[in-house]
């Protein structure tokens, strides 16, 4: 109920909307209405397209924002259901738009809707996402700077009982480029409050073994696995490890035959020795290797 009330407080009033303009009524009687012009498509995130808009009238003339458009008639094949996905994304985005989290997460300015779609307004990042900047390996110190920020963001998410579940370079936006990198986590379309995590979501090269239904004997002996075959938000730490490997080597640790390679990696160690241990439970150890003490126990 508290989340629902918070989401409602962030809803923006819309006076007019069409394919070119969005108009928000003035919140102050001496100001003109805010009109935002759609400029170009920035890309496609989980469950929706992202557009660039610029304010053409009102107190924020010249400002830019990104707007994610999520069609309401979209239907997932997964058990989550589209309405829940929209609620999860809004809940996470609003939660982590608060001041204490803004250094690590993309901020939202609010949301609005039509009968056909939900629109989420967000910061615009001219430098794009991390995927655009890692065509080759980065120096170790730069890679560590990026990973520290990712892990701190994940720590905040996990402390608030959220799992991201689709951590990858395309979902990490660049506020400042290297060598002094500043990155922020984005795209909470797959995020979920980590009560019971069962659905396989995310992007395959960054999947933990659990998401490929590869479990160790210790996993199989656990009550949760026997009852529900659930996984924990430590799958996010695995994804962060894959990103770290890619940052320092320029390549992904696993190829196109992901399931077989993960299986060999988990049970037989038939991989390059440079790759870290093959269980998501290496998360705290990975954090310690970066001189961090921010991960949940």
Structural overview:
The strands form 3 sheets. A 7-stranded antiparallel sheet has the order 1-2-3-4-5-7-6, covered by helices on one side. Helix 1 packs across helix 2 and helix 3 packs antiparallel against helix 6. By secondary structure, it is of the alpha+beta class. Strand 1 and strand 2 form a beta hairpin. 29% of the residues lie in helices and 21% in strands. It has 2 domains: 121 residues, 2-Layer Sandwich (Phosphorylase Kinase, domain 1), CATH 3.30.200.20; 160 residues, Orthogonal Bundle (Transferase(Phosphotransferase), domain 1), CATH 1.10.510. The chain has 8 helices and 11 strands. The chain is globular. It starts with a helix and ends in an 8-residue tail after the last helix.
Largest sheet: 7 strands, antiparallel
Regions with little confidence, pLDDT below 50 for 5+ residues: 75-80, 273-287, 293-297
| CATH classification class of the largest domain | Mainly Alpha
User: What is the CATH topology assignment of the largest domain?
Assistant: Transferase(Phosphotransferase), domain 1
> What's the end-to-end separation, in Å?
28 Å
What is the count of structural domains? 2
- Rg over CA atoms, rounded to whole Å, is 20 Å
The largest beta-sheet arranges its strands as: 1-2-3-4-5-7-6
Multimeric organization: single chain
Outline, from the CA principal axes? globular
Going by CATH, the architecture of the largest domain would be Orthogonal Bundle
Would you tell me the structural class of the helices and strands? alpha+beta
